[in-house]
Amino acid sequence: MIRRCLVVIFMWFAAYPAAAQDMASLVADRISVDPSGRLTATGNVEVFYRGTRLTARSVTYTRDGDILTIEGPIRVTEPDGTVLTAAAAELDRDLSDGVLRSARLVLNQQLQLAANEISRVGDRYTRLNRVVASSCEVCAARPTPLWEIRAGSVIHDTEERQLYFSNAQIRVAGIPVFYIPRLRLPDPTLERARGFLIPRFRTSSDLGTGIKLPYFVPIGDHADVTLTPYLSSSTRTVELAFRQNLRRGRVNAIGALTDDDIDGARGYLFADVAYRLPRGFLLNGQLELASDPGYLFTYDYSGKDRLTNQINVTRVRSKDVFRTSITEFRTLRDSEIAIRDTLPDRLVDVFYLRKVPELSFGGRTTISVEALTLNRPSATDVVGRDVSRIGTEIDWRKDRVFGPGLVAVGELGARLDVYNVGQDSNFATTQSRFAPRAAAELRWPFARTMANGAREVLEPVLRIDVADSGGTDVPLEDSSVIEFDEANLFSHTRYPGVDGIEDGVRVAAGLAWRRDDPAGWTLDAAMGRIAHLDGDLGFGVGSGLSGDQSEWLVAARFAMADRLFLANRSLFDENIDFTLSETRIDWQASDFSLGSSYIFAVPEPAEGRLDRLSEWSFDGSYDLNDRWTASANWRYDFKTGRAARTGVGLDYRSECIDVSLSLTRRYADSTAVDPTTDFGFRVSLVGVGGNDGAPRRSRSCRG
User: Fold this and answer.
1) How many angstroms separate the CA atoms of 294 and 666, rounded?
2) 618 near 632, Cβ under 8 Å?
3) Measured in whole angstroms, how far is the alpha carbon of residue 204 from the centre of its chain?
4) What is residue 698's DSSP assignment?
5) Burial label, 51 (beta-carbon count in 10 A; 0-12, 13-18, 19+)
6) What are 235-257's pLDDT values in tens digits?
7) CA 118 – CA 130 distance, rounded (Å)
8) What is the mean pLDDT of residues 375-384?
9) What CA–CA distances, in Å, run from 348 to 518, 696, 702?
10) What is the percent of the chain where pLDDT is above 90?
11) Which of 64, 122, 376, 436: CA 20 to 30 A from 318?
12) Of 103, 79, 77, which is closest to residue 89 (Cα–Cα)?
């Protein structure tokens, strides 16, 4: 039969004129109207009204009762994606009130609610009777879902986006496991709803077997708090997580209060604040508090062994940079608890840098000013040293390209500092230091394009630095930890701060090479070393910068699209004896991910490293199939001959359920904390609450 299409301004469907947006469209193979005014549409019927689409085998409209009698199979798709299916229905002309029999409600393409009867009440409520709810796929081969909720009735509030179950029975594989007279759940489209979240089970060798039951409380549209009671045979803990977005910033806080069998009352609080002040200033704050050194480790809240409390204000503009901060340090390290009074605990710093175009002379000139004070609690001579410093620095740099692509760089600079040192007889109370410097650098990049489209760049670099601190000896408070790498190989200093100055004449020479291959991979490599022409470089043996010349620095990075990344940095001498070597590999494929690193470093007392460092870490996951994923992580300390952390996990993920199992063994550096073993278990029902957005595969139904 030739399909006919009729667009009706529903003279039959309304007893009054309709607005344009209220017009309905009816499409069917055949439409007839009998003498009494009853309209009947049959064959592939489709009705469109206010964004709602209805399909059925036949639709009959009776004008007297303003009722649509519909024969299925029926499918109603609403603008928000909600789907209703039924065998038969009676609805009003707005499709918003009525009854559907042998019906099914599908929310967000996830949660399905099958009911003997569904009643629609206005545009807000849908009532379902004798309901089975699940997000698991059901077919002839598997008629019983993995999980389901059976209820006498369910009311769906589309405005509040809540589901209210009466006489609910939770079943797993068809077996009743729990009965709840009244149950409220958010529908899958709601992202923030007050109520309990997914519980987590944890078994710990220190704390026994317990359960964490998070309760989420939204506070308006821009803030929320999650309270998580954690109960076991050895602990009574309440965890807190608070978030708030402000008009010009944000506030985040996490913490916990505990009464356990280990140390009684304990707790911690971590918080951070960011706020945009007027005129481009940014305020940042950080708070880190813990009751005792072992608390964070025992409860696996954090791996930090030093806490930092800080408030700072910054502003970065194209012409200048401003920064000021107040910082407090606290140590949790077992080896430092006894000497904590000799460690810095407060730092106040103010810094300002500005470009000076008037003094650029064709290059770039900056002037900076900085003042800081660093305090230790101890009043003992030497170990209780307090330092204050105020200084200013001017730097000029100019780059020029000439000849056959040769790049020349010239630098001039000078720094003036005044120090006030208290409680240390090794230094004068007040002293000043003036340190001028100059540098010249040459780079000669060579580039070529291969026949296959690959591009290579080879760049030799030579740099000469001259500086003179006048022999003034000052405390190296901000320059004690040295990191020699490709980033500072051609820098005027290897010190991370301004207290340390590299004196004399130094020469740095090296080579950089890069290849971009059309196959999708890139390779970068660099090598070089530094020599002091009239003395010692002045760094410790473990830095790779001792003696009159440094060790060889070799660094390389290999990347293949977003799938594979490999990096290495090594320091070694002429005999290929390594001072430092660190390697990192990350490999991402369709069914597995792998990350591994290894680091080796010789002792360096100047940096607080008294023993050889040799550690290997590994983390990875593998998709056993489209549902099961295995994971493992590992950190092994070759010096102690044992693992510092070991963990394995197994995850099951389907269209209707997520299950996570984990087993972790952790060792602490502190002798006050025993190693601990944790077992974790978590079950999440998909479609109950918000959707995490992750792709899922449905089980195929065969037979």
Assistant:
1) 13
2) yes
3) 26
4) P
5) exposed
6) 999 999 999 999 999 999 999 99
7) 9
8) 96
9) 51, 52, 70
10) 62
11) 436
12) 103
Written as six digits, the tokens of 154 are 């369910």
Amino acid at 24: A
Q: What is the pTM of this model?
A: 0.82
Closest CA to 657 of 683, 630, 623: 683
What does the block give as tokens for 328? 């407090």
H helices within 581-666, ranges in order?
Answer: none
Q: What is the DSSP string of 54-95?
A: EEEEEEEEETTTTEEEEEEEEEEE-TTS-EEEEEEEEEETTS
**How far is 557 from 619, CA to CA, in rounded Å?**
20
Q: How many CB atoms lie within 10 A of CB 139?
A: 12
Q: Which of 461, 454, 547, 537 is nearest to 503 (CA)?
A: 537
| Structural tokens at position 662 | 């984990």
Tokens read off for 593: 């991910």
Helix, strand, coil distribution of the chain in percent, nearest 5: 5, 60, 35
Position 400: which residue type?
R
CB 626 within 8 A of CB 654: no
Q: How far apart are CA 456 and CA 454, in angstroms?
A: 7
Exposed, middle or buried: residue 126 (CB in 10 Å: 0-12, 13-18, 19+)?
buried
Amino acid occupying residue 601: A
Q: Could you please report the per-residue DSSP string of 600-633?
A: EE--BGGGTB-S-EEEEEEEEEEESSSSEEEEEE
Q: Please give the single-letter amino acid code of residue 643.
A: A
